[in-house]
Amino acid sequence: MFTKQTFRQAMGQFATGITVITAQNNELEVKGVTVNAFMSLSLDPSLIAISLRNEASIIDTLTQAKSFGISILSDEQLEYSMIFANQKKTEELVSFEYKQSVPVLPEALVQMICEKESEVKAGDHTIFIAAVKDLQLNEGKPLLYHGGQYKQLAE
What start-end ranges are recorded for coiled-coil regions in this protein (predicted)? Predict the structure, then answer.
């Protein structure tokens, strides 16, 4: 038998990229959260999935929103990851780019505009499935996460 901590350690051995999910609430305030539980589901149609803790502050915003942005972070955007993971406080407001009226982070490795298809409760998480409506690719290397630490690809 294993413990929750052992399970968490085991899952931490799976290296992932880092994304920031952004959406506007009904008051048009931008909310964002760092997420590494992100995956491609389907090529045709182009579908993705993200998984968030049910207590995540952005859950209400994503439940209300029809569309949201996904910014796949480059290795030069560690600060964004830390800000949206509440690991770092900043006095400066984060600037966003808007594509099809959806906020994304500037100069992210990939910027995606997604339209929510469904949400599924799964244990202590909610999985959001969305269709990718637009995307932009930019040059750079990904910011990675493994074993509870940020990593970068070696040259």
Answer: none
For the four alpha carbons of 140, 149, 78 and 22, in that order, the dihedral sign comes to positive
Q: Which two structure tokens, joined as six digits, stand for 104?
A: 């994304």
Return the residue matching tokens 């590494």: 36
The pLDDT value given to residue 146: 92
CA distances from 77 to 2, 17, 41, 87, 110 (A): 35, 12, 25, 14, 12
- Fold topology of 17-148: Pnp Oxidase; Chain A (2.30.110)
Phi/psi at 37 (nearest 5 deg)?
-90, 80
Task: Tell me which residues of the chain have a pLDDT lower than 70.
Answer: none
Going by C-beta distance under 8 Å and a sequence separation of 6 or more, which residues neighbour residue 133?
67, 100, 113, 114, 115
* pLDDT for position 144: 95
Q: What are the helix and strand counts (H, E) for the chain?
A: 3, 12
Kindly state the tokens that stand for 5.
Answer: 């901590």
Of the candidates 15, 52, 20, 17, the residue with the CA atom closest to the CA atom of residue 147 = 15
> What φ, ψ does residue 60 adopt, rounded to 5°?
-60, -40
Phi, psi of 28 (to 5 degrees): 65, 20
